[in-house]
Amino acid sequence: MPAPKHGYAPAADTRGGSHAPAVATRTALRALLALSLAGCAAVPTAPAPDLQRQARALDARRLDDPGLAAAEARLQLPSAADVAWTPDRITVAAWYFDPALAQARAGARRAEADAALAAQRSNPTLQLSPEKIVSGGGVGSPWTIGAALLIPLLHPGESAARRDIAAADTEQARDQAALALWQSRTRALGALREVLLARRAQALAQHVATAAAGYRDSVHRRVAAGASGRDAELAAELDAQRAAADLANRTAQRGAAEHALAGAIGVPWSALRTVPLAWPRLQAPPAPDALPAAALAQDAAWNRLDLAALLAHYRASAARLRAAAGTRYPATSVAPGYIYDRGRRKFAFGVNVELPLFHGAGARIRAAAAARDEAAAAVQARQARILNDLDAARAGYAERYAAWQRMLDVAAAARQSAARARTQRRAGQIDRGRETIAEVACAHAELTAVDALGATLDALARLEDVLQRPLWPASTLAPPAATDPPPPSSLTETAHAH
Description:
The chain has about 500 residues and is an alpha+beta fold. About 60% of the residues lie in helices and about 10% in strands. The chain is built from eleven helices and four strands; from the N terminus they run αααααββααααββαα. The protein has a four-stranded antiparallel β-sheet, covered by helices on one side. Helix 3 (about 65-75) packs across helix 4, helix 6 packs antiparallel against helix 11 (about 430-465) and helix 9 (about 305-325) packs antiparallel against helix 10 (about 360-425).
């Protein structure tokens, strides 16, 4: 090989050259940038709530919404304009519009996202340590560059525990979403029942008020003719005033019930003003003996959604205890690395081990075990309360049903008395006043029977709520089941609540 010009020969320790650290630095920066870009994730954007636009959208909701009609068609429910709104149709409308479900579903999605986040492992950490000799250096590169990748190791069983925690938390979130669907149905059907009963009660109260006013007028005429005393007129006037006050109260109750129904569905009252409402066989609830006691106890003690959510919480607590048990072994990280030391290249391997100088894993394990025991006690306490509530609800329904049956007998007897009084009045056997008294008594008895029916249906609704399954009327909609995923977006209120 020819000798270099000017007698210059490269030294042996300059193979890295001063340009080598710059190349290595650029390469490391490119790798770091590539890893950073690989870890990027898109951030979903959403506009801030526009209160005015939301208010206009809420006020524009109607039960002839095309999306609601499509949902009813998928569930094989009639959606024609002349078809009455039955309990199943009201339930689907509530599931479609109810703003409370928006919050429940958003909470379920957040809980699932939190569960997935908790199941993630910590990312490795890249450590860069460049050094440069600025004075007193010899011949060769003044640079020393070190790079190490710090990788935390999992404790024994930690990976499986993380997966179990995420699965249990996700299941609990879905149970909570299904429970929100059941609660929405309960609110909507309770409001529908109150509207129909309030309308019936108002009509009967109107009849009572009209009959009482007629009787008062007849007594007033008799007093004027000298056939009755002033005490009879005063008593008739008090009865008429009492009936008018009851009518005003029933009218207010009807208005409150109708607005409550609109709120339970999630539409303005104007959307319900003209729609026909119906509840088939509203006045024929099942007899208490028709409800199987053993099956009810099994449904209440095993299949309730809130109980399933508590069981999922227990499973998550047990998995957290297993994860805490793994911390008995010290936290360890490994750090394979590369060092460029002034022209020399080295490979390094570091190990970081946590030293339990101040505390061990005992406190963490005891806290996790206490949380698991608390979750188990919550399951047992809820199950005991469910069974007690079931006994109370069954007894309450039986008592209310029996009282309603007695009032039906009283109302039937009152109707017979009124019919007999009308016959006697036409035959001239009694005067108009006695006929009016019989009619008022009949209307009062029927109104009391309607109130007893309302109490009976409320007791049946409490029994349904204890079971968290439909009992009456029969429903074609599948009840929300534990661990079911949230319903598809076509049945959500995403486009309607915002």
